[in-house]
Amino acid sequence: LNPDSFAGESSAVVDFLADYYRNVDKYPVMANTQPGTIRKLLPEAAPELGDSMDRILDDVQRDILPGLTHWQSPSFFAYFPANASTAGFAGEMLSAGLNVVPFVWTASPVATELEQVVVDWMASLLGLPERFHFKGGGGGVLHGSTCEAVVCTLAAARDRALSKLGHEGILKLVVYASDQTHATFQKGASIVGIPPANFRILRTSANSGYGLTATIVQRAIEEDVARGLVPLYLCATVGTTGLGAIDRVRELGHVARRYGTWLHIDAAYAGSAAICPEFQGHLDGAELADSLSMNPHKWFLTNMDCCCLWVANPTTMTDALSTDPEYLKNVGTTSKMAETVDYKDWQIALSRRFRAIKLWVVLRRYGAAGTRAHIRRHIQMAEWFEHVVAADERFEVVVPRNFSLVCFRLRPRFMADKAVEALNRDLLAAVNASGRAFMTHFVVDDKFVIRLAVGGSMTEMRHVRAAWELLKEKANDLIATGC
Ligand code: PLP
Fold first, then answer.
1. Are residues 149 and 275 both part of a single domain?
2. Among residues 326, 344, 401, 452, which one has the fewest Cβ atoms lying within 10 Å of its Cβ?
3. Does residue 469 fall inside a structural domain?
4. Candidate from 151, 269, 297, 308 with most ligand 1 atoms within 8 A of CB, to mutate
């Protein structure tokens, strides 16, 4: 690494990206590429000799950008956002540039301690109970994704239960989720050895806005306990992936407490909204949970990747995940005075990134007020969109909006259900093929719904208005041609 060429080449990349952001709204939002095209374009083997950064960036422009789906486009309304920001990028640059590997305290003391500070800051900003703060006996960690975080909590819950039941008890352990819970919980349960039949998917309905209620969980747990099974783990989601539904945390917490069941709150997307006091109520009852996670990389101005996981009792986590090789013993955690942690014992891998600096730069640069304004801006745009959809008699809002996600469909009167589904599939395909916006879909109660998730850092009201105009234009075309 030569510091002089580092400066020149890195600033060429920054200039390239600045130009990309200036023009990102000119690219088709969803990549318009046939499978295999990009693989055919590139050589079969890596080059023997290195190339200049200028030539590499030319190739990025020519070969790579056309194959991208542009997540930072202001007209990207698909999935949930992965919002970038200047501070998120600066923090990512610092993390990548310093390139330390803080798996234990001595491996980079400030990286560990800064992580402890920023997860406590975040816990305060989101109004989380004291028990999730380091100073309250709990603590947090930064993972790359909710999926990793969930596996760690499942392993902790499993080992806590097996320490009483003995290892053969694993066949009795049951994990509860709803039909709206993210698929990662099923994968995680399987990774930690829960028998597939013991992953219980509980049915939700429109009556509760597709949120999980205590009655549903209580009934399932009672049945299982009567069969000699052990209710291990319950996932409550605040802001489900498909519909943005909200499980009733406090109710579920009481049921979980009654049976000694580990309660995890998955707030991957909507957790960011809790920076605004008016949304903190959705986490009411969090003091009854054992763990909680949210992804700043979705909606908190933090570039990929960053997931905050908090646990109320870190020993359950470290009992399940710690290793103790001689070469990693260090004064930071062996000294009696230590208030620090070895984060290798809070995650799956040994090596880890210095994510704390990224989240710290975001918090320093925008402050809580800046982040609140970012969230509220998106929610206002989603409110407007929900309103115009509801006011157009050809469309319907399928579930009431939560946060910045609107789920809707085209529903001309007198059309059969099957035809409505085909119509909406065609509508979504036409919108996405236009390149002017990108949305995705979900299916609930056999209804095919289109999801519009507002969350891009560069998304403004005019982009949401344009998306609505585009939907109406394509709907008119389809209706005029008799679909
Ligand atoms: N949980 C919810 C509610 C999500 O919406 C998502 C992703 O969209 C996840 C979990 C998975 O998050 P990750 O991709 O960080 O593993």
1. yes
2. 326
3. yes
4. 269
